[in-house]
Known about the structure:
The structure holds two protein chains of two kinds. By secondary structure, chain A is an all-beta fold. Chain A is built from no helices and eleven strands. By secondary structure, chain B is an all-beta fold. In chain B, a hairpin with a 5-residue loop joins strand 4 (32-37) and strand 5 (43-49). Chain B is globular. The A-B interface holds A 4, 31, 33, 40, 42-45, 48, 50, 56, 58-59, 88, 90, 92, 98-107, 109 and B 1, 31, 33, 35, 40-45, 48, 88, 90, 92, 97-101, 103-106.
Amino acid sequence: DVKVTQSSRYLVKRTGEKVFLECVQDMDHENMFWYRQDPGLGLRLIYFSYDVKMKEKGDIPEGYSVSREKKERFSLILESASTNQTSMYLCASSRQLAGAPRVFGPGTRLTVL
Amino acid sequence: SQELEQSPQSLIVQEGKNLTINCTSSKTLYGLYWYKQKYGEGLIFLMMLQKGGEEKSHEKITAKLDEKKQQSSLHITASQPSHAGIYLCGAAPGGTSYGKLTFGQGTILTVHP
């Protein structure tokens, strides 16, 4: 079964901590995405990457950075976590020509205290 | 930016009933994507529509993009409890990367046995 895996389903961190969310896909997809999902605000794109070491800002990149050193892995980094970053984080991937995300991970529910 | 409005926001139906979910944009849709999400999990890609008047089906789910490419509908025939979940439409703003999808708020579907 092809899939996208995320390092944690649930994560609790304290304000000011540096947080790493890891995402791995096994489909050799070129494109990878990080979204956050909040009630009333829907799904919003944070960053996406269309190749190794390439990244592009989404709609809400402030407070986040990303890293893609290998094709299969896309990491989301919260440099200094804040309470307003409490959210559900979803990683996704797709083939280059497909463009939009096709396969999503199960999500990481992050709580920042 | 492109905004997508989904209707209804929630829907409760009896098993076996047909239902329709709509996704409307104020701008032309260049690529319209439908996803399903089970509560607390990642999204599952259902279908992509690109051409005006295009219609696609997968099992008992049919999606259509109108001729003007500003509205899409998702129709479920003879609904089953397995159809329950959140349905989201996503669209790519014209002239930008398909990676940068804008999502609707989602429609919560409940199917009573």
